[in-house]
Backbone:
């Protein structure tokens, strides 16, 4: 915070130069943001300027995860320090306030009334016009947690995160809606009072621009209708009571749905978002799906888990995405499209295709060929491994023979190959090698090709290096493990 200088004369007194006090508030606050609460308290004792900065910090972070191993009295001291900080701030605005609290010990936490004190902090933060608030509480109890009704009247709040680590949250019977809330993130809790919660969500959606819902249980029907909402994310992995999800909004441009459930469960998804540009959907197929007319869709990522009986549903789902320019598919969705033995004509507008597969195995190639036949405007084609469901061994030994050799690919006469400008492929066997060779020789407009390989695939790399001279494209060979 300062430096010392001394005169050349022996024995001259040292002069202290305070450089920290001359810094603008914004820079000083940024420096202080890297300190712990304990260190911040020490800094506040240095000067009047320091205590002023301490009491006007725009961001406050209280995290008991780092204090769980502290003794009972040290933990109490930590709470007392934060009590004094918030009560002494006057009306200095809090831009961001984060609380991460665990009911570390039932005996100690209840003895010092920690939860009550946290609610007092929240009240003080509201008094200081908090704008961004992240609340992560883990009570480690089966007793429902109830948020005070006055909490929902905060008019300064712009962004709110509620994360209760799977605990039960009792929703107030009558609660106001944050009048200026723009971003709402709800994570990992079970609702007690479904009807009250659903009414509150509908009310809150009037001002929201972003809504994120992850592992919120205790709800069977969820309706999101908003004239202001731009982005919606819904994540739920199994054990979900939710049966019906409806999302409606003229301004919605981004939807991400990860919804997995028992195949025997009846579910429905209804989307009315005529201006949607990006759709990402992972998980199970619904009994009833209505995505509406997605005429503005630019990119769709579809990672479904269809059964053999779901072929028609897959076609109906992807038919809604006929205007998309970029399409990303997983292996199971790609295979399901081939079961009808027909060319999906609704892919005519696709210019960028990504297929995430374990490898270019014999059972996936006919499905991939079927897709490529319907893509007359394709310019970019990626075949890569999906890290979410595949783990490569360090050394992959390719098979020596390929069922689908160069002659097979030539016989397919795929018109889209001649329009390709960029290709990325990961080698794992002879099928990838043969397809890469075919691309190099027949993709006349190819500008760039990236070939990923393992250390043990030196022969395949040598084979393709010899044949890249037939193409004018830039061919790049990369070790797929080089970033490990």
Residues:
């Amino acid at each position: 915070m300062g430096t010392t200088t001394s005169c050349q004369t022996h024995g001259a007194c040292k002069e202290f130069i305070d450089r920290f006090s001359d810094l603008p508030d914004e820079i000083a606050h940024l420096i202080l943001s890297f300190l712990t609460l304990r260190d911040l308290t020490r800094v506040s004792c240095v000067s009047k300027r320091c205590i002023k900065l301490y009491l006007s910090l725009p961001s406050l972070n209280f995290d008991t995860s780092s204090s769980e191993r502290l003794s009972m009295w040290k933990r109490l001291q930590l709470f007392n320090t934060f009590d004094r900080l918030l009560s002494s701030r006057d009306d200095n605005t809090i831009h961001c306030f984060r609380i991460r609290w665990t009911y570390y010990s039932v005996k100690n936490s209840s003895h010092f009334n920690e939860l009550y004190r946290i609610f007092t902090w929240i009240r003080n933060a509201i008094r200081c016009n908090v704008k961004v608030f992240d609340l992560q509480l883990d009570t480690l109890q089966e007793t429902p947690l109830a948020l005070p009704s006055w909490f929902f009247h905060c008019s300064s709040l712009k962004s709110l995160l509620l994360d209760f680590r799977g605990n039960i949250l009792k929703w107030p019977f009558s609660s106001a809606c944050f009048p200026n809330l723009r971003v709402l993130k709800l994570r990992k809790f079970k609702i007690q009072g479904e009807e009250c919660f659903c009414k509150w969500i509908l009310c809150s959606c009037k001002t929201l621009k972003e809504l994120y819902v992850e592992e919120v249980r205790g709800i069977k029907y969820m309706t999101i209708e908003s004239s202001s909402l731009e982005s919606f994310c819904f994540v739920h992995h199994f054990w979900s009571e939710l049966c019906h999800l409806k999302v409606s909004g003229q301004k919605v441009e981004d939807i991400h749905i990860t919804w997995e459930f028992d195949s025997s469960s009846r579910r429905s998804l209804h989307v009315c978002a005529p201006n949607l540009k990006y759709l990402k959907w992972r998980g199970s197929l619904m009994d009833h799906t209505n995505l509406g007319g997605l005429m503005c869709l630019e990119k769709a990522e579809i990672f479904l888990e269809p059964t053999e009986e779901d072929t028609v549903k897959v076609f109906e789902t992807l038919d809604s995405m006929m205007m998309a320019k970029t399409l990303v598919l997983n292996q199971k969705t790609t295979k399901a499209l081939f079961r009808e033995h027909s060319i999906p004509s609704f892919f005519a507008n696709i210019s960028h295709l990504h297929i995430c597969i374990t490898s270019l195995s014999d059972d996936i190639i006919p499905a991939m060929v079927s897709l490529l036949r319907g893509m007359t405007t394709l310019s970019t084609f990626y075949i890569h491994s999906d890290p979410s469901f595949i783990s490569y061994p360090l050394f992959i030994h390719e098979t020596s023979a390929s069922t689908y050799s160069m002659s097979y690919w030539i016989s397919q006469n795929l018109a889209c190959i001649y329009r390709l400008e960029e290709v990325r492929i990961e080698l794992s066997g002879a099928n990838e090698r043969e397809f890469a060779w075919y691309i190099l020789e027949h993709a006349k407009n190819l500008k760039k090709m990236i070939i990923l390989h393992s250390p043990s695939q030196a022969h395949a790399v040598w084979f393709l290096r010899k044949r890249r001279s037939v193409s004018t494209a830039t061919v790049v060979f990369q070790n797929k493990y080089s970033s490990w």
About this structure: The chain has 13 helices and 23 strands. Residues 3-7, 9-13, 387-399 have pLDDT under 50 and may be disordered.
